[in-house]
Specification:
The chain is of the alpha+beta class. The chain has 18 helices and eleven strands. The longest helix has 40 residues, at 373-412.
Length: 568
Amino acid sequence: MANFYLDNPSLKHHLHHPLMKRIVKLKERNYADKDTFDYAPIDFEDAMDSYDKVLEIVGEICGEIIAPNAESVDHEGPTVADGRVTYARGTQENLDAVRKAGLMGIALPRRYNGLNFPIVPYMMAADLVSRADAGFENLWGLQDCAETLYEFGNEDQHQRFITRVCNGETMSMDLTEPDAGSDLQSVMLKATYNKADGYWHLNGVKRFITNGDADIHLVLARSEEGARDGRGLSMFIYDKRDGGVTVRRIENKLGIKGSPTCELVYRNARAELCGDRKLGLIKYVMALMNSARLGITAQAVGLSEAAYREALSYAQDRKQFGKAIIEFPAVYEMIALIRAKTDATRTLLYETSRFVDVYKVLEDISRERKLTPEERQEMKKYSKLADAFTPIGKAMATEYANQNTYDAIQIHGGSGFMKDYACERLYRDARITNIYEGTTQLQVVAAIRHVTTGTYLAKIREYEGLEYKPELEDLKKKLIAMTDQYEKVVSMVVETKDNEYIDFQARRMVEAAAHCVMGYLLLQDTNVNDSFRRSAEVYINYAQAEVNKIDAYISSFDREDLGYFKAQ
């Protein structure tokens, strides 16, 4: 039987990182749930065994149900009639399978029927599902919205809505509008409070809403009369059972066709406020987007994994000029680089997930009791690291997913252009990943301050200070040289004090930081598990060449040449 977890040993490697002991201890509140819930772990080993077993179930569902359904779902897609969406047959089978397995509340507390898993195993499940069908990940992964509802909603809302999600209902986040894409400050969907019934009523249009006919919606709407910026926006909960929202159409998309992307019309739809007024964009959507960006990183990694396996299998089987094409350097170089980029972004995904885990669980504990000074410092440290690593993870993983799926088609040659092979679908599915939940360009905007303030450099130097095996010394020397180059070009740009020039070179500096980070993370993986050595060697050599290019470009760039670009 196909099992996407058991056939990928790198996942167990990342699951058993040393920081998991701290994460699990915090998440389980010293295993206090064991006296209340019979499925709660009694200690660390029991918790890890639970994660392992559940991921094995996810892997089996992915291999036996979701992946086999992916092609038919891509061809059939969802339909809309009378304002309601019907999923493709395969999508409904997938949803039935994950619901039956109890996988709709993985990271939510047990008191709402969730599994109370940390972010790390949750992202591993997302990684697996995305390898099977990236479009289905968009439906299953939207349980992230329940995390935001848990964080900012009240206990009554938790009981009424989160329990439904854990029991299998779906969610959506309704943010974008026809005239408000990346610029969410421009959202104009109107929220009006009705004193007679004690509810808010929503009117307007939302566009590009993933799973827009979901059971429960988190909606960004303008609650403050006369306000035109983000301070006039609040977050609302809309329950499909109450009516008032119809699906005008489903977008005809390039990829992820199993996931219905909807245009929604709100006509006096009854809703309730989530959290406080005026914080919808400033606080709640930012938290929601960071969580979603981590999920898209996992989606991109899963797509890269699928692309690698498709490319490798074809290259081993396809014969030209009397031998398998994998024996040609032009081909085996491409496959090795796909593998290295996949491993590099996966190790960055789980490093980021660990940072998110620590600060999120401490933040949750702070709502139960006062944190100790040490805990507050720990939360501050990991919050900063999560804030820094989330955008570079999303940017690099999604750009690499596009490159890897592109190369998978190239390895297939003319056959890759045909719908007979899965790589064609993977390529189309990957294209959206570096656009939605914040384009790569917006990730650079989020990341650049961590370049200019030294967050990345400090963490890279911390990685440099770790002890590595003697046989890895040559790779470490390359990384030290890369880091020195990165530090040099950042100083060169920042010292100009020219904000426009810093913004112009921001993408290159962020990429250089990411190359150093991923190189060191792969070196750490290899230090523990030699199976990562090939990817570490390939990636570090590739990254060194990329940093050299960045260094050469910035070092030789004349700031007066900015005018050439602006003139276009």
